[in-house]
């Protein structure tokens, strides 16, 4: 089946096959990688290769530290305020969908958060124009969500906010196209869409920002301590880290992010084309310039068709197309691991469904 789940999302088949082949006996050591100490030479090698491969894949400069942490993207949303904003300092947020709202909620106990732009009055169907943003004078950072997984809204360009460090949630679009990492203070992402299985998050942080005092916090919430401890302050999620490492190797072998950028552009263009050419049978309500390449929410013209659409799609091997409960309708998540054949099959199914139920 082709799995269009928004996350945990589909993993590349060769990665699952390799994990299966190595599950009981990793590289002949006589034990599974999940049974080995995170401080042993075997796992240390897995961890080091994963970091090196992601650095290569995303062209991450040396003055950025990388962390592989637990807690998901949501925990990082809270930790950024604790680590990078002093008590009472203002932080700026661009809220362009559900996850931007979540990010804001996570920092409100700690800092004065200014909503510099809010797409909610427009139903999160567009990103408010740059001229309308109300930026603070001395913000500790500006946070935005590069791709809104539920609303299907994606920034086409990195926001230009001068010298204010940019902190961005790339959970659902990381490593989907080339990115100038040097433009960011912090990039974070839960792995479970483009990078691997749920249970590990990647945090890429400009080292200079780690010198900020931030707020009083326990060591386990302190990015400096995690950097010093090489993401092994406590027992790390070794299985998830290992699987993510296999995904990085697969992506490099497939041609890297430049190749995935092309595939992703073709995949999303095909789906939007089917939707836009359906004469209103299907509709996507997001402004064309900010439509997501990763998550394509769409509605059928008559809600009564939702059930048959999902049932017939499932029978055709096209699964997890039900939209998020906040929006209803359908959503096709088409991350790096979704092959082009999967999207072509969905496009053909949508056209066929329209003909039969039109
Ligand atoms: N941010 C974005 C853009 C997401 O899509 C998600 C999850 O779907 C999250 C944050 C929350 O991630 P987690 O469940 O890893 O905390």
From TrEMBL:
<feature type="binding site">
    <location>
        <begin position="73"/>
        <end position="74"/>
    </location>
    <ligand>
        <name>pyridoxal 5'-phosphate</name>
    </ligand>
</feature>
<dbReference type="InterPro" id="IPR015424">
    <property type="entry name" value="PyrdxlP-dep_Trfase"/>
</dbReference>
<feature type="binding site">
    <location>
        <position position="99"/>
    </location>
    <ligand>
        <name>pyridoxal 5'-phosphate</name>
    </ligand>
</feature>
<comment type="pathway">
    <text>Cofactor biosynthesis; pyridoxine 5'-phosphate biosynthesis; pyridoxine 5'-phosphate from D-erythrose 4-phosphate: step 3/5.</text>
</comment>
<keyword id="KW-0963">Cytoplasm</keyword>
<dbReference type="InterPro" id="IPR015422">
    <property type="entry name" value="PyrdxlP-dep_Trfase_small"/>
</dbReference>
<dbReference type="Pfam" id="PF00266">
    <property type="entry name" value="Aminotran_5"/>
</dbReference>
<feature type="binding site">
    <location>
        <begin position="234"/>
        <end position="235"/>
    </location>
    <ligand>
        <name>pyridoxal 5'-phosphate</name>
    </ligand>
</feature>
<feature type="binding site">
    <location>
        <position position="169"/>
    </location>
    <ligand>
        <name>pyridoxal 5'-phosphate</name>
    </ligand>
</feature>
<comment type="subunit">
    <text>Homodimer.</text>
</comment>
<comment type="pathway">
    <text>Amino-acid biosynthesis; L-serine biosynthesis; L-serine from 3-phospho-D-glycerate: step 2/3.</text>
</comment>
<protein>
    <recommendedName>
        <fullName>Phosphoserine aminotransferase</fullName>
        <ecNumber>2.6.1.52</ecNumber>
    </recommendedName>
</protein>
<feature type="domain" description="Aminotransferase class V">
    <location>
        <begin position="2"/>
        <end position="346"/>
    </location>
</feature>
<keyword id="KW-0718">Serine biosynthesis</keyword>
<keyword id="KW-0028">Amino-acid biosynthesis</keyword>
<dbReference type="InterPro" id="IPR015421">
    <property type="entry name" value="PyrdxlP-dep_Trfase_major"/>
</dbReference>
<keyword id="KW-0663">Pyridoxal phosphate</keyword>
<dbReference type="InterPro" id="IPR000192">
    <property type="entry name" value="Aminotrans_V_dom"/>
</dbReference>
<dbReference type="GO" id="GO:0004648">
    <property type="term" value="F:O-phospho-L-serine:2-oxoglutarate aminotransferase activity"/>
</dbReference>
<comment type="similarity">
    <text>Belongs to the class-V pyridoxal-phosphate-dependent aminotransferase family. SerC subfamily.</text>
</comment>
<feature type="binding site">
    <location>
        <position position="39"/>
    </location>
    <ligand>
        <name>L-glutamate</name>
    </ligand>
</feature>
<dbReference type="InterPro" id="IPR020578">
    <property type="entry name" value="Aminotrans_V_PyrdxlP_BS"/>
</dbReference>
<dbReference type="InterPro" id="IPR022278">
    <property type="entry name" value="Pser_aminoTfrase"/>
</dbReference>
<keyword id="KW-0032">Aminotransferase</keyword>
<feature type="modified residue" description="N6-(pyridoxal phosphate)lysine">
    <location>
        <position position="193"/>
    </location>
</feature>
<keyword id="KW-0664">Pyridoxine biosynthesis</keyword>
<comment type="function">
    <text>Catalyzes the reversible conversion of 3-phosphohydroxypyruvate to phosphoserine and of 3-hydroxy-2-oxo-4-phosphonooxybutanoate to phosphohydroxythreonine.</text>
</comment>
<keyword id="KW-0808">Transferase</keyword>
<feature type="binding site">
    <location>
        <position position="149"/>
    </location>
    <ligand>
        <name>pyridoxal 5'-phosphate</name>
    </ligand>
</feature>
<feature type="binding site">
    <location>
        <position position="192"/>
    </location>
    <ligand>
        <name>pyridoxal 5'-phosphate</name>
    </ligand>
</feature>
């Amino acid at each position: 089946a082709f799995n269009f789940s928004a996350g945990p999302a589909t993993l590349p088949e060769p990665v699952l096959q390799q994990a299966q082949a190595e599950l009981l006996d990793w590289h002949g050591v006589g034990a599974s990688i999940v049974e080995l100490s995170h401080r042993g030479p075997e796992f240390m090698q897995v961890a080091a290769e994963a970091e090196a491969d992601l650095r290569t894949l995303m062209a991450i400069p040396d003055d950025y530290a990388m962390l592989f942490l637990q807690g998901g993207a949501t925990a990082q949303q809270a930790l950024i305020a604790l680590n990078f904003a002093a008590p009472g300092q203002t932080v700026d947020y661009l809220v362009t969908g559900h996850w931007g709202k979540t990010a804001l909620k996570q920092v409100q106990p700690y800092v004065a958060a200014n909503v510099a732009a809010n797409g909610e009055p427009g139903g999160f169907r567009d990103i408010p124009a740059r001229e309308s943003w109300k930026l603070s004078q001395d913000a500790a950072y500006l946070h935005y969500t590069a791709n809104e997984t539920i609303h299907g809204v994606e920034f086409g360009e990195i926001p230009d906010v001068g010298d204010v460090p940019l902190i961005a949630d790339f959970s659902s679009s990381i490593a989907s196209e080339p990115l100038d990492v040097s433009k960011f203070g912090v990039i974070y992402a839960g792995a479970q869409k483009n990078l691997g299985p749920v249970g590990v998050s990647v945090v890429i942080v400009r080292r200079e920002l780690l010198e900020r005092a931030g707020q009083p916090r326990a060591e386990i919430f302190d990015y400096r301590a995690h950097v010093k401890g090489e993401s092994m302050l406590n027992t790390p999620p070794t299985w998830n880290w290992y699987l993510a490492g296999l995904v990085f190797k697969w992506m490099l072998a497939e041609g890297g992010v430049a190749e995935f950028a092309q595939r992703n552009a073709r995949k999303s263009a095909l789906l939007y084309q089917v939707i836009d050419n359906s004469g209103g049978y299907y509709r996507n309500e997001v402004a064309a310039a900010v439509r997501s390449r990763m998550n394509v929410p769409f509605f059928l013209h008559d809600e009564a068709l939702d059930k048959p659409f999902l049932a017939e799609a499932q029978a055709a091997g096209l699964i997890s197309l039900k939209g998020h409960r906040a929006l209803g309708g359908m959503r096709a998540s088409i991350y790096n691991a979704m092959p082009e054949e999967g999207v072509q099959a969905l496009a053909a199914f949508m056209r066929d469904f329209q003909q039969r139920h039109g």
